[in-house]
Amino acid sequence: MKISGKRPKALPMTLELIGVLEYRRVLFKRQFGRLPRRGEPLFFDPEHPEPRRLPPDARRQALANVLALAGYGHALVEGG
Fold first, then answer.
1. Burial zone of 5 (CB within 10 Å; 0-12 exposed, 13-18 middle, 19+ buried)
2. The whole model's pTM is what?
3. Which domain holds residue 26?
4. CB-CB contact of 41 with 52 (8 Å)
5. Which of 21, 46, 22 is nearest to 32 (CA)?
6. Residues 6 or more apart from 66 whose CB is under 8 A from it?
7. How many domains does the chain contain in total?
8. Could you report the per-residue pLDDT of 15-66, keeping only the tens digit for each?
């Protein structure tokens, strides 16, 4: 899947999107023993002991997966 070049100004917060983001917070807490601080990535590299962003390709894929799960797949993700 590829994220299209068009970026909306804002996505409406659906219950599905809120659930996915909360799940990412839970994963962060399991990995690092605390909730994420402002500016820390929810899409983190699990191979590092400190919060670090995923590499760009992995980050795009993770975001495409989240958007698809939250019901935004057809509007924002190409090829899926």
1. exposed
2. 0.69
3. 14-32+41-78
4. yes
5. 46
6. 17, 20, 21, 24
7. 1
8. 888 888 899 999 999 999 999 999 999 899 989 999 999 999 998 888 888 8
